[in-house]
Specification:
heterodimer; A: alpha+beta; Ubiquitin-like (UB roll); 5-stranded mixed sheet; 3 helices; 5 strands; about 15% helix; globular; B: alpha+beta; Cytochrome p450; 3-stranded antiparallel sheet; about 10% strand; metal ion binding (chain A); 2Fe-2S_ferredoxin-like_sf (chain A); 2 iron, 2 sulfur cluster binding (chain A); 2Fe-2S (chain A); Putidaredoxin (chain A)
């Protein structure tokens, strides 16, 4: 299991157990977490799973995927250097303890 | 080697259940639920001797198949023909029937042209046209909803979005239907589609030429990529045509199926009218519940496996999206149409890197129709029997007589 902590815009923290190979988006959705919509199901066709990777983790989550910038451009909230589509971050043992911050809005 | 349906015959691995069924039988295509159920019940992967193909219907194995684009490729065709062994009926699509890295390049161009931002900019036009059509239909005592609404709306708004100067209602709808029928076996549906396409194809080709498009539509965005040198002029023309093959008949089907669901579930219509924020979840549930695209194929690029069963290189595998979307293991009560289900991960738009690139615009169109209807239509009543139209890849209505009761 890989632990991921989601910090909502209002500061509420939720820590979930994800499975290796699942995405940060899918882990949140299966637990019914508010704050990530994931409308396209992970095909990188929307920007409703936007998250900000915590500074301490951004090296380990790696760079944005090909095409991710174009979709982030459609995000409802501000896009920062640490912005990622959470469907494109796949959990690995190395990411155990990952912290992501959620935007004020996804739609 | 004698090919079957243009692909290599295979010997299924020990333990893979064999089912002598014709998934493309017109009776099954019209009413597929029993076929979906049996396919799932038999196992994660089933061998169908008639076409020497494998079929996958359980959600877990279907989703895995579609998200593994390295072992299960698209470049050898997403129908039954193996393009590595037989000449395809048309030049392969450079976005649908292609693998990375070529796919990554064209996909990115299409994804940009069809992004949520672009779709948002079309929302006012969608709404204005939806108002005109819904108001017209409210004046009728009853109407045929397939042609009168499900077709009329996309045929009105989509060519506008693309920037087309030429519009032909029938050709625009039937083009997609032909392309999807061509994904099936050499049956009557496919043969008729290829014949019909000989007439429609040239019309589409001419209507998508650069000089027949306005300079402010989706089509112009694609031709601009040719000017920028990211694709060739011929590739740009192909991508513009793919807007029409993939973006009209599919959306027509989505709208028709949504009307059918809501007419048959009046309590769900009442919920939608009471809370318009349920429009988008209602679209997802419609897509899950009716799977407008019911089947899509892949080819095994190498010796691999599905759910632990060996699968030989060159195997054609059909992914039965309709069966996955109605798998009780995944959905609990799949036979119930619930607009607030929020069925994340449904496979109506596929999954993985080939997930429908037009899904935002599809949602935008259906949302415009449902929103306007929710404001003005108190009840949607059936005015006769709904009839499904068999197609080798699309589960669409042929006739849907309805009556709108105004507020």
């Amino acid at each position: 299991m890989v632990k991921v902590t989601y910090i909502a815009h209002d500061g509420t923290e939720t820590t979930l157990d994800g499975a290796e190979g699942d995405s940060v988006m899918a882990t949140a959705i299966s637990a019914g977490l508010d704050g990530i919509v994931g409308e396209c199901g992970g095909s990188m066709m929307c920007a409703t799973c936007h998250c900000y990777v915590d500074d301490a983790w951004s090296d380990r989550t790696g760079p944005r995927k090909d095409g991710e910038d174009d979709m982030l451009d459609c995000a409802a909230d501000d896009v920062k250097d640490t912005s990622r589509l959470s469907c494109q971050i796949k959990l690995t043992a190395e990411l155990d303890g990952l912290v992501v911050h959620l935007p004020s809005s996804q739609l | 080697m004698t090919l079957i349906e243009g692909h290599k015959p295979i010997t299924p691995a020990d333990g893979i259940p064999v089912w002598d069924v014709d998934p493309y039988d017109e009776a099954i295509l019209a009413n597929p639920d029993a076929y979906y159920a049996k396919l799932r019940e038999l196992g994660p992967v089933v061998y169908i001797p008639r076409y020497s193909i494998l079929a996958v219907g359980q959600y877990a194995s279907a989703h895995k198949l579609f998200t593994n684009h390295e072992n299960f490729i698209s470049s050898r065709g997403v129908g039954l023909n193996d393009f590595a062994l037989e000449e395809p009926w048309r030049p392969p699509s450079i976005i649908l029937e292609v693998d990375p890295p070529d796919h990554t390049r064209t996909r990115r161009i299409m994804a940009k042209a069809l992004s949520p931002k672009v779709v948002k900019s079309l929302a006012d036009m969608f709404r204005a046209e939806a108002e005109i059509i819904v108001d017209d239909l409210l004046r009728e005592s009853s109407f045929e909803a397939v042609t009168g609404l499900a077709e009329r709306f996309p045929v009105t708004v989509f060519p506008k979005a693309v920037g087309m100067r030429d519009v032909h209602h029938r050709h625009l709808v039937d083009y997609g239907s032909c392309v999807f029928n061509a994904m099936g076996p050499d049956n009557a549906l496919r043969r008729q589609a290829l014949e019909r396409n000989a007439i429609i194809g040239p019309w589409i080709m001419a209507a998508c030429a650069r000089d027949r498009l306005t300079d402010d539509g989706l089509g112009a965005m694609i031709y601009a990529e040719a000017d920028a040198g990211t694709i060739t002029e011929a590739e740009a023309a192909m991508l513009v045509r793919s807007f029409l093959s993939a973006g009209v008949d599919t959306t027509v089907t989505g709208i028709g199926n949504a009307l059918w669901c809501l007419a048959n579930n009046p309590a769900e219509w009442d919920r939608l009218r009471a809370d318009i924020t349920l429009a988008r979840p209602a679209i997802e549930e419609t897509l899950r519940f009716t799977s407008p695209v019911h089947t899509f194929g892949r080819t095994a690029a190498r010796d691999t496996e599905i759910a632990g069963y060996p699968v030989e290189e060159g195997s054609k595998i059909i992914c039965v999206l309709g069966a996955a979307n109605s798998d009780p293991e995944k959905w609990g009560d799949p036979g119930t149409f619930r607009i607030d289900r929020r069925p994340l991960g449904h496979m109506a738009f596929g999954a993985g890197i080939h997930g429908c690139v037009g899904q935002n615009i599809a949602r935008g169109e259906i949302e415009a129709i449902l929103s306007v209807m929710a404001e003005r239509v108190a009840r949607i009543e059936p005015a006769g029997d709904a009839v499904w139209r068999p197609n080798n890849a699309i589960h669409a209505l042929d006739q849907l007589p309805l009556k709108f009761i105004p507020n």
